[in-house]
Design goal:
One of its GO terms (molecular function) is acyl-CoA dehydrogenase activity. By secondary structure, this protein is an alpha+beta fold. The protein contains 16 helices and 11 strands. It binds flavin-adenine dinucleotide.
Amino acid sequence: MDYSRFTDGNAVNWYESDFTMKRYVQRYLSPTLQKWGEDQLAHMGAYAAGPMDERARHTDREGAPKLLRYDRLGNEINEVWYNEGYRATVAEGFRSGVVGWRYRKDVPEPVPFFFTQLLHMLMSGAETGFTCPVTLTMAVAFVIEKFGSEEQKAKYLPRLAAMEPENLLQGATFLTEIEGGSDVGAIQTRAVKDGDRWLLTGEKWFASNCDADLSITLARVSDVPGTKGLGLFLMPRILENGVKNRIAIRRLKDKLGVRAVASGELELREAEAELIGEPEKGFKYMAEALNISRMCTATGSLAMSRRAFLEAAIHTFRRSAFGNTLKDYPMVQQTLLDMMTDIEAGWALAAQMMLGMDRCHTEGQETVEEITRLRLLLSMAKYRLSENSVLHAKQALELFGGNGYIEEFVTPRLLRDAQVSTVWEGPSNIMALEVLKILAREAAHGSGESILFTEMKKTLSEVDRPELVDVAQCIEQERKELFLDTRYLLSADERVQNAHARTLMDKLTDVYTGIQLLKEAQVDLAESKDERLARIAEYYVDRTFRPNVHSIRSKSIPVDDLFEQVVCGFQEAPIH
Ligand SMILES: Cc1cc2nc3c(=O)[nH]c(=O)nc-3n(C[C@H](O)[C@H](O)[C@H](O)COP(=O)(O)OP(=O)(O)OC[C@H]3O[C@@H](n4cnc5c(N)ncnc54)[C@H](O)[C@@H]3O)c2cc1C
């Protein structure tokens, strides 16, 4: 692909030009859903690259939401003002079915998360501020779908899933308090039963989409300390009698990025709410909401990496310095090659996460093993892809030179938006501890090895193409080392575990992702004799596990071999 044909990322359709996404559509969506959904993806690819991105720029710079706490007579109204463009983005975004398709009957077959996440990704390339409310609405719907009473499902699900803006209820998830976000057990907000409703009193320190129509809110129902005493509540903004619920928005956060979403501090003053499920199971229910938001953070981050790559590729194919086009310098090629390798590896990991989500929650195979595997994958993907998106946004910014630092270009916004992904929905350290906790639980329950290790061993044993055997052997060695490291760490004391949790997380994610890349590469070799993914898998393994292959004295320059095929080896995308 000759990226110099485009003026910038807005000149291409983000679906039509993303051959990695298209490959995964063909591989993992049923033919029926491909036929039904491809036009929708192409439409969103054009829309996100066009009007949505233009509005996102405006919202970020001039049109951020504003708190209207009082009306002109001094009455407390607690409303949030949004600019017109953002409102249009909200309407079009939800109209796409990104939340709704899962709950609709007028579809050819049940629509998996795998499809709605593609819509989410296309939007995330433009406006992660908006995809936050999308994610939160999806999470609230999912919790009601799984744990709500029949009455709650009938009352709320059709409206959370509505694709017409006039019927839509937007969702939000309120956990974090000033005492702690990761430490959910520190929550102080209290819930007191009052007839058949509950009254919630306390403060929420971070509340994104703070004026949402319906939130799920954690509050303490008993004096049992920690997460055990927490219940989960549905808290509407407007009560059934049309009066506003007693929720004050103290102020909006002045944030580094994702400025389109109103993240506020809330005061709940005996706010009315209804309980979901059983009183002391709130944390368990909220964990399912977190699974949705971690999945969306992971895929949204991958989309930001893709945007960073696209902008960087276009710029470096057009800009000259010292008499050469930037893209002809090996150092520049190396950065683009690394970005693309990370994106392909990210897809191999994210695909397993999305498929795992569907296996458990769309296809009804919610076994203990599948749930365990899914939780591991969600943490790994959220961790790896969010960290990568920050790196890629920074790399794109640098490749733009001075312009990259200037707000008229997308790179500063990308970097600012990407940075939140490593923090919200569980910071990176917490993701690493989560993985360790799950592995420990598996070990304690007597399963000889983690389900992920069994899967890795099996997948590797099925890699038999001669082109991949050497690479597979290298990963197998790493897998064995990883197994020993894991066993050691699980038997170590808490301090040692904490010290090494992130190293283990990195290693586990590196090895698992490499194996998935090999699996995908083998499919391409077998089905279309396409070697591109095999070359990427080999480079990924060399870069990660045997850096000497490309050391200075190795006399090998990886881009000489790989740049054309990996970075440019696609058919031309149409100008949009
Ligand atoms: C823009 C934005 C929007 C948000 N929106 C919402 C929302 O809508 N709803 C909501 O409930 N929350 C929201 N949050 C809160 C967010 O989820 C929390 O900030 C996040 O979970 C981290 O919690 P914390 O801020 O209390 O940090 P802490 O938990 O205090 O963590 C601080 C640092 O310490 C590290 N750390 C903590 N414990 C350990 C440990 N045991 N070992 C090693 N390291 C550790 C963490 O990794 C982190 O790096 C939002 C945050 C932001 C920035």
